Amino acid sequence: MAHYRLSALGDAHVEMVYELYRSNPDGSISTLDVTEVWRHGCGFISEDLETNLGHADDTEFYARSDDGEDEACDFRDSVAVYFEFGEGVDVAEQEDFKEKYYRGDAQGRGGVGYLHEGEHGWEMEDQRVRFGSPVCVQFCEADGTPLREVTLRTRQEWKTLWEDLGRRYVVPKDSFLKPWKIDKPLRPTKTEEEIADLVKRLGL
Q: Which of 44, 29, 15, 36 has the alpha carbon at shortest distance from 114?
């Protein structure tokens, strides 16, 4: 499927965030977040989830690691790894988990391999790619071939257009795409005549 590819620009960082959990014998739930910071990498948003793109003036952007081409996120140059353990995980267990993440378990599985395949009792709840600003956004074919550079609307541009259209249209964050009408408007702010005139001028 065609998709958006996000990559960091300049000194902006890239983080791969893993959220895990486990059920304890006493019925409680423990959580664990593992965040690995990289100098270079990319993430993906599928074409049909365009609304998940950020705005041009956002300070953070989120994407998926598994909605793009075969080469995946192509992370390079790991900078640091952070572990955030919730309640119910003692210090010794925390240190054992970190040691196996860094150096590998008895089967040689370390890093992400240990998270997904290691025998540690944790379940993967979610994983996502997080970017600092600025980012480069490209719209790509399914095989990763870039089709165009994407200019995102700022938050104010998006809000103004949405309100000018009487809140009767979905406004994409990708400025190349035109808004499209929804069946049930939310609190219309324009008259039918005003909306019709704006729609005509925008070519919708």
A: 36
Angstrom distance (rounded) from CA 1 to CA 57:
27
Give the start-end residues of each E strand in 24-165. 29-40, 42-46, 60-63, 76-85, 123-132, 135-140, 146-149
Question: Pairing between strand 135-140 and 3-8?
Answer: antiparallel
pLDDT single digits (tens) 59-96: 999 999 876 655 556 788 889 999 999 998 999 999 99
| Strand pairing report for 123-132 and 42-46 | unpaired
User: Phi/psi zone of residue 19: left (φ > 0), alpha (ψ -120 to 50 degrees), beta?
Assistant: beta
Across 120-133, average pLDDT: 92
Q: Of all residues in the chain, what percent are helix, strand and coil, respectively (each to 5)? A: 25, 35, 40
What are the C-alpha distances in Å from 200 to residues 2, 49, 192? 29, 27, 12
Q: How many CB atoms lie within 10 A of CB 160?
A: 13
Tell me the range of 35-39, 109-113, 150-154, 159-163 where mean pLDDT is highest: 150-154
Domain ranges of the chain: 3-149, 155-202
